[in-house]
Amino acid sequence: MRTIKSYVKRKGRITEGQNQAINTLWTKYGIDYSKEFLNFPFIFNNNNPVHLEIGFGDGESLIKQAVSNFEKNYIGIEVHDPGIGRCLMNIKKHNLTNIMISSHDAIEVINDQIKENTLERINLYFPDPWPKKRHHKRRIVQPAFLDMIANRLKEGGTLNIATDWAAYAEHIDEVFSHSDHFICTERREHDGELPFKRPRTKFERRGLKKGHRIWDWCFKKI
Ligand SMILES: C[S@@+](CC[C@H](N)C(=O)[O-])C[C@H]1O[C@@H](n2cnc3c(N)ncnc32)[C@H](O)[C@@H]1O
């Protein structure tokens, strides 16, 4: 498994409320990292389909999805503490029972804790673009990542990706063009029209303000 991380842990100021949320709510909504597979029916207390979001930022899109789809379960993964705290505060605010979060590297969580053929959908919204050439190896979308994701998705499950970086969009097209695991069922390049099948995210708004275009894909596991 690769050891190069797709993130650098930013220091970022954590507020009192976010800190308190981590201290008081983690035991209820947090998934600790371990090398054992998660038992979804046990942790969610139902057999509903599970969607997983990689790098949820402050959790805005994750919370919106969980609030409007009670018949789905959500697992969010993020390593940035202020975002984790913010997300926990919102889980509590909305009294959500269909969401759990992990604060560990998504690659290791998916590799070690997610069983094969168990996820209905994986969302990767605005992954860090690592624009400098010497950092391209840090991009999360790599052939080995696609192999792992395809293994964890159920047949017909989808990987939904969005980016506002033209060069990362080219990279994504290139990597998927060599994969036998997925077919692209939707690809859209746009100027921020209402996103399809996902809420708008904080990084998307940031990109749009800078005049970036947005690329959205839906890749279906064959
Ligand atoms: C550019 S931000 C986008 C955040 C959010 N999805 C949005 O659109 O507003 C990318 C996020 O992915 C997280 N991230 C990157 N690699 C990760 C990994 N391997 N595991 C967990 N989180 C990761 C970073 O910490 C960062 O918060």
What would your notes on this structure say?
The protein has helices spanning 16-29, 40-44, 60-68, 81-93, 106-113, 143-152, 166-177, 202-209, and strands spanning 30-31, 50-54, 73-77, 99-102, 119-125, 153-163, 182-190, 214-221. Helix 3 (60-68) links the parallel strand 2 and strand 3 (73-77). It has 8 helices and 8 strands; from the N terminus they run αβαβαβαβαβαβαβαβ. Helices cover 36% and strands 23% of the residues. The protein has one domain (36-221): Vaccinia Virus protein VP39 (Rossmann fold, 3-Layer(aba) Sandwich). The chain is an alpha/beta fold and 222 residues long. The longest helix is centred in the N-terminal third of the chain and has 14 residues, at 16-29. An 8-stranded mixed beta sheet has the order 1-4-3-2-5-6-8-7, sandwiched between helices. Residues 6-7, 55-57, 77-80, 83, 105-107, 125-128, 140, 201-204 line the site of S-adenosylmethionine.
**CATH architecture, please?**
3-Layer(aba) Sandwich
- Could you give the order of the helices and strands? HEHEHEHEHEHEHEHE
Number of domains: 1
Number of strands: 8
Structural class based on helices, strands and sheet pairing: alpha/beta
pLDDT averaged over residues: 96
Tell me the strand percentage band: 15-25%
Radius of gyration using CA atoms only: 17 Å
Gap from first CA to last CA: 24 Å
Helix fraction by DSSP (H/I, runs of at least 4): 25-40%
Catalogue the unreliable spans.
Answer: none
CATH fold naming: Rossmann fold
Order of strands side by side in the largest beta sheet?
1-4-3-2-5-6-8-7
The molecules bound to the chains, other than polymers, are: S-adenosylmethionine
Number of helices: 8
Main beta-sheet annotation:
8 strands, mixed
| Name of the top-level CATH class | Alpha Beta
